[in-house]
Amino acid sequence: MIEGRALERVVETRDPAGTRALAAALAAAARPGDLLSLVGELGAGKTQFAKGFGAGLGVTDTIVSPSFVLMAEYCGRLPLFHIDLYRLADAAEALAGGLIDERQGEGVTLIEWAERLADAMPAGHLDVLIEGTGDDPRRIVLRAAEATYSRYLDALSGASSDASPLESPATKAVR
Ligand SMILES: Nc1ncnc2c1ncn2[C@@H]1O[C@H](COP(=O)(O)OP(=O)(O)OP(=O)(O)O)[C@@H](O)[C@H]1O
Ligand SMILES: [Mg+2]
Protein backbone atom coordinates (compact mmCIF):
# COMPACT_ATOMS: atom_id res chain seq x y z
CA MET A 1 0.00 0.00 0.00
CA ILE A 2 1.17 3.53 -0.77
CA GLU A 3 -0.79 6.29 1.00
CA GLY A 4 -3.51 3.78 1.73
CA ARG A 5 -4.03 2.77 -1.90
CA ALA A 6 -3.98 -0.86 -2.89
CA LEU A 7 -1.26 -1.79 -5.37
CA GLU A 8 -2.52 -5.27 -6.16
CA ARG A 9 -5.85 -6.90 -6.89
CA VAL A 10 -6.72 -10.43 -7.86
CA VAL A 11 -9.76 -11.12 -10.01
CA GLU A 12 -11.10 -14.45 -11.20
CA THR A 13 -12.83 -14.80 -14.56
CA ARG A 14 -14.73 -17.86 -15.69
CA ASP A 15 -14.80 -17.29 -19.45
CA PRO A 16 -13.29 -15.08 -22.16
CA ALA A 17 -16.18 -12.60 -21.91
CA GLY A 18 -15.34 -12.17 -18.23
CA THR A 19 -11.71 -11.40 -19.03
CA ARG A 20 -12.76 -8.95 -21.73
CA ALA A 21 -15.20 -7.25 -19.34
CA LEU A 22 -12.48 -6.89 -16.71
CA ALA A 23 -10.11 -5.33 -19.25
CA ALA A 24 -12.83 -2.99 -20.55
CA ALA A 25 -13.48 -1.75 -17.02
CA LEU A 26 -9.75 -1.15 -16.51
CA ALA A 27 -9.55 0.86 -19.75
CA ALA A 28 -11.63 3.59 -18.10
CA ALA A 29 -8.50 4.48 -16.11
CA ALA A 30 -6.20 4.70 -19.16
CA ARG A 31 -4.14 7.83 -19.67
CA PRO A 32 -1.72 8.80 -22.45
CA GLY A 33 1.66 7.10 -22.08
CA ASP A 34 0.39 4.14 -20.04
CA LEU A 35 2.00 0.74 -20.38
CA LEU A 36 0.46 -2.63 -19.48
CA SER A 37 2.51 -5.81 -19.24
CA LEU A 38 0.47 -8.91 -20.14
CA VAL A 39 2.04 -12.10 -18.85
CA GLY A 40 0.70 -15.64 -18.96
CA GLU A 41 1.40 -18.85 -20.81
CA LEU A 42 0.20 -19.73 -24.32
CA GLY A 43 -3.57 -19.48 -24.43
CA ALA A 44 -3.86 -17.79 -21.03
CA GLY A 45 -5.99 -14.97 -22.40
CA LYS A 46 -3.61 -12.07 -23.06
CA THR A 47 -5.17 -11.34 -26.44
CA GLN A 48 -8.69 -11.66 -24.97
CA PHE A 49 -7.63 -9.05 -22.42
CA ALA A 50 -6.34 -6.79 -25.22
CA LYS A 51 -9.65 -7.15 -27.09
CA GLY A 52 -11.61 -6.10 -24.02
CA PHE A 53 -9.26 -3.25 -23.23
CA GLY A 54 -9.65 -1.99 -26.79
CA ALA A 55 -13.43 -2.19 -26.51
CA GLY A 56 -13.23 -0.17 -23.32
CA LEU A 57 -11.22 2.48 -25.17
CA GLY A 58 -13.87 2.57 -27.90
CA VAL A 59 -11.80 0.76 -30.53
CA THR A 60 -14.21 -0.57 -33.16
CA ASP A 61 -11.70 -2.44 -35.34
CA THR A 62 -11.22 -6.12 -34.50
CA ILE A 63 -8.15 -6.65 -32.36
CA VAL A 64 -6.22 -9.74 -33.39
CA SER A 65 -2.91 -11.12 -32.26
CA PRO A 66 -0.16 -8.91 -33.71
CA SER A 67 2.36 -11.79 -33.79
CA PHE A 68 3.39 -11.20 -37.36
CA VAL A 69 3.60 -7.44 -37.28
CA LEU A 70 5.12 -6.99 -33.79
CA MET A 71 2.96 -3.97 -33.13
CA ALA A 72 -0.57 -3.08 -34.23
CA GLU A 73 -2.11 0.34 -33.70
CA TYR A 74 -5.82 0.99 -33.14
CA CYS A 75 -7.85 4.16 -32.85
CA GLY A 76 -9.97 4.68 -29.71
CA ARG A 77 -10.49 7.35 -27.05
CA LEU A 78 -6.69 7.09 -26.93
CA PRO A 79 -4.53 5.32 -29.54
CA LEU A 80 -3.96 1.68 -28.56
CA PHE A 81 -0.62 0.02 -29.38
CA HIS A 82 -0.72 -3.77 -29.12
CA ILE A 83 2.63 -5.56 -29.09
CA ASP A 84 3.35 -9.31 -29.02
CA LEU A 85 6.92 -10.36 -28.25
CA TYR A 86 6.35 -14.12 -28.54
CA ARG A 87 8.44 -14.51 -31.66
CA LEU A 88 11.11 -12.09 -30.69
CA ALA A 89 14.60 -13.43 -30.00
CA ASP A 90 15.61 -10.90 -27.39
CA ALA A 91 14.81 -7.59 -25.82
CA ALA A 92 17.71 -5.85 -27.55
CA GLU A 93 16.18 -6.78 -30.88
CA ALA A 94 12.86 -5.33 -29.79
CA LEU A 95 14.31 -2.08 -28.65
CA ALA A 96 16.51 -1.77 -31.74
CA GLY A 97 13.36 -2.22 -33.78
CA GLY A 98 11.84 0.80 -32.09
CA LEU A 99 9.50 -1.13 -29.82
CA ILE A 100 8.99 1.79 -27.50
CA ASP A 101 8.88 5.06 -29.39
CA GLU A 102 7.61 8.57 -28.78
CA ARG A 103 4.24 7.98 -30.47
CA GLN A 104 3.27 5.66 -27.65
CA GLY A 105 3.38 8.61 -25.28
CA GLU A 106 0.04 9.65 -26.75
CA GLY A 107 -1.66 6.32 -26.27
CA VAL A 108 -1.76 3.12 -24.23
CA THR A 109 0.62 0.27 -24.98
CA LEU A 110 -0.22 -3.37 -24.18
CA ILE A 111 2.67 -5.83 -24.41
CA GLU A 112 2.05 -9.59 -24.58
CA TRP A 113 5.01 -11.69 -23.35
CA ALA A 114 6.37 -8.52 -21.74
CA GLU A 115 8.60 -10.60 -19.46
CA ARG A 116 10.87 -11.02 -22.50
CA LEU A 117 11.89 -7.39 -22.11
CA ALA A 118 13.29 -8.15 -18.65
CA ASP A 119 15.19 -5.09 -17.44
CA ALA A 120 14.34 -3.18 -20.61
CA MET A 121 10.71 -2.95 -19.44
CA PRO A 122 10.07 0.61 -18.24
CA ALA A 123 9.47 0.77 -14.48
CA GLY A 124 6.14 2.54 -14.84
CA HIS A 125 3.52 -0.01 -15.86
CA LEU A 126 0.62 -2.17 -14.74
CA ASP A 127 1.40 -5.86 -14.45
CA VAL A 128 -1.39 -8.16 -15.62
CA LEU A 129 -0.52 -11.77 -14.75
CA ILE A 130 -2.97 -14.34 -16.07
CA GLU A 131 -2.90 -17.83 -14.55
CA GLY A 132 -4.81 -20.73 -16.05
CA THR A 133 -5.45 -22.07 -19.55
CA GLY A 134 -8.05 -24.07 -21.45
CA ASP A 135 -11.50 -24.04 -19.87
CA ASP A 136 -10.12 -23.41 -16.39
CA PRO A 137 -11.08 -20.17 -14.62
CA ARG A 138 -8.40 -17.50 -14.88
CA ARG A 139 -6.80 -15.94 -11.83
CA ILE A 140 -5.74 -12.48 -12.93
CA VAL A 141 -3.31 -10.55 -10.76
CA LEU A 142 -3.25 -6.79 -11.36
CA ARG A 143 -0.24 -5.09 -9.83
CA ALA A 144 0.67 -1.42 -10.03
CA ALA A 145 4.45 -1.39 -10.48
CA GLU A 146 4.35 2.37 -9.78
CA ALA A 147 1.83 4.16 -7.58
CA THR A 148 0.31 6.14 -10.46
CA TYR A 149 -1.01 2.85 -11.86
CA SER A 150 -3.09 2.22 -8.75
CA ARG A 151 -5.81 4.23 -10.51
CA TYR A 152 -6.50 1.06 -12.53
CA LEU A 153 -7.25 -0.78 -9.32
CA ASP A 154 -9.41 2.14 -8.18
CA ALA A 155 -11.34 1.93 -11.45
CA LEU A 156 -12.17 -1.64 -10.58
CA SER A 157 -13.39 -0.73 -7.11
CA GLY A 158 -15.66 1.88 -8.63
CA ALA A 159 -16.91 -0.74 -11.03
CA SER A 160 -18.88 -2.68 -8.45
CA SER A 161 -22.07 -0.75 -9.21
CA ASP A 162 -24.95 -2.30 -11.14
CA ALA A 163 -23.86 -0.66 -14.39
CA SER A 164 -20.49 -2.36 -14.34
CA PRO A 165 -19.39 -5.09 -16.72
CA LEU A 166 -17.85 -6.65 -13.62
CA GLU A 167 -21.37 -7.48 -12.50
CA SER A 168 -21.22 -10.13 -15.19
CA PRO A 169 -21.51 -13.49 -13.47
CA ALA A 170 -18.37 -14.48 -15.37
CA THR A 171 -16.16 -12.24 -13.26
CA LYS A 172 -15.63 -12.14 -9.56
CA ALA A 173 -13.10 -10.32 -7.42
CA VAL A 174 -11.40 -12.84 -5.19
CA ARG A 175 -9.44 -10.34 -3.12
N1 LIG B 1 -11.54 -16.92 -18.45
C1 LIG B 1 -10.96 -16.88 -19.67
N2 LIG B 1 -10.29 -15.75 -20.03
C2 LIG B 1 -9.68 -15.67 -21.23
N3 LIG B 1 -9.68 -16.63 -22.17
C3 LIG B 1 -10.34 -17.77 -21.87
C4 LIG B 1 -11.00 -17.95 -20.61
N4 LIG B 1 -11.57 -19.18 -20.61
C5 LIG B 1 -11.27 -19.74 -21.78
N5 LIG B 1 -10.54 -18.91 -22.56
C6 LIG B 1 -10.02 -19.23 -23.90
O1 LIG B 1 -8.61 -19.23 -23.83
C7 LIG B 1 -8.06 -18.72 -25.04
C8 LIG B 1 -7.20 -17.51 -24.75
O2 LIG B 1 -6.57 -17.17 -25.95
P1 LIG B 1 -5.69 -15.88 -26.15
O3 LIG B 1 -5.33 -15.83 -27.59
O4 LIG B 1 -6.33 -14.68 -25.54
O5 LIG B 1 -4.40 -16.28 -25.26
P2 LIG B 1 -2.98 -15.58 -25.27
O6 LIG B 1 -2.57 -15.51 -23.84
O7 LIG B 1 -3.02 -14.31 -26.03
O8 LIG B 1 -2.08 -16.67 -26.02
P3 LIG B 1 -0.74 -16.44 -26.88
O9 LIG B 1 0.39 -16.55 -25.91
O10 LIG B 1 -0.76 -17.60 -27.84
O11 LIG B 1 -0.80 -15.12 -27.56
C9 LIG B 1 -9.23 -18.39 -25.95
O12 LIG B 1 -9.46 -19.49 -26.80
C10 LIG B 1 -10.38 -18.21 -24.97
O13 LIG B 1 -11.63 -18.52 -25.56
MG1 LIG C 1 -1.97 -13.58 -27.67
Topology readout:
Blueprint: E1 8-13, H1 16-27, E2 35-39, H2 46-56, E3 71-74, E4 80-84, H3 91-96, E5 108-112, E6 126-131, E7 138-144, H4 150-157, E8 171-173
Parallel strand pairs: 2-5, 2-6, 4-5
Antiparallel strand pairs: 1-7, 1-8, 3-4, 6-7
Adenosine-5'-triphosphate binds at residues 13-16, 18-19, 40, 42-48, 65, 86, 112, 135, 138.
Our count of helices gives 4
The low-confidence runs, each spanning 5 or more residues with pLDDT under 50, are: 160-170
Provide the list of bound ligands, each named once. Answer: adenosine-5'-triphosphate, magnesium ion
Sheet/helix structural class: alpha/beta
Overall pLDDT metric = 86
What does this structure look like?
- It is a single chain.
- The protein is α/β, with parallel strands linked by helices.
- It has a single domain (8-173), classed as 3-Layer(aba) Sandwich (Rossmann fold), CATH 3.40.50.300.
- Helices cover 21% and strands 23% of the residues.
- The protein contains four helices and eight strands; from the N terminus they run βαβαββαβββαβ.
- It has helices at 16-27, 46-56, 91-96, 150-157; strands at 8-13, 35-39, 71-74, 80-84, 108-112, 126-131, 138-144, 171-173.
- Strands 3-4-5-2-6-7-1-8 form an eight-stranded mixed sheet.
- α1 packs across α2 and α1 (16-27) packs across α4.
- The longest helix has 12 residues, at 16-27.
- It is globular.
- Mean pLDDT is 86; it is low at 160-170.
- It binds adenosine-5'-triphosphate and magnesium ion.
- Magnesium ion binds at residues 46-47, 65, 84, 112.
